[in-house]
Design goal:
Length: 126
């Protein structure tokens, strides 16, 4: 665990917030027919590629663990963002109690899958 690059993990987790912030800001709505569902999917895909690229190009030693924790961190940040939005927006959706666990597990799993892809790319590029 000490070998992990925690500042990088936190940075990657926070970059994941780009997509929900764009959504809350209405950017995807402003794109018309392209906006939903394509723009959020494109943003998510680009963020996933960025996470993989950072880990591969940065030659991170434990890509699976790094991106698993980044996914978990993103889940925590997304939950925190949702809780903060409730203070300002009546339209903010409430997350049901089981949803908190699902968000954390799903994002950790996504991070692990991206980490496995990054590990495979690292091995190919050696």
């Amino acid at each position: 665990m000490r070998q992990l690059r925690w500042p990088l993990i936190v940075l990657l987790a926070l970059t994941g917030l780009i997509r929900p912030v764009l959504s809350v800001a209405g950017v995807f709505d402003d794109l018309g027919a392209f906006g939903h569902p394509w723009a959020p999917l494109l943003a998510t895909g680009l963020l996933a590629l960025a996470w993989i690229a950072v880990v591969v190009l940065g030659r991170v030693r434990a890509p699976v663990l790094t991106l698993t924790f980044a996914g978990l961190g993103y889940g925590l940040a997304a939950i925190a963002l949702n809780l903060v939005l409730h203070l300002f927006l009546d339209s903010a959706e409430r997350i049901p109690a089981p949803g908190y666990v699902a968000i954390l597990l799903w994002n950790a799993l996504q991070g692990a899958v991206l980490g496995a892809i990054a590990l495979g790319l690292q091995r190919i590029l050696r």
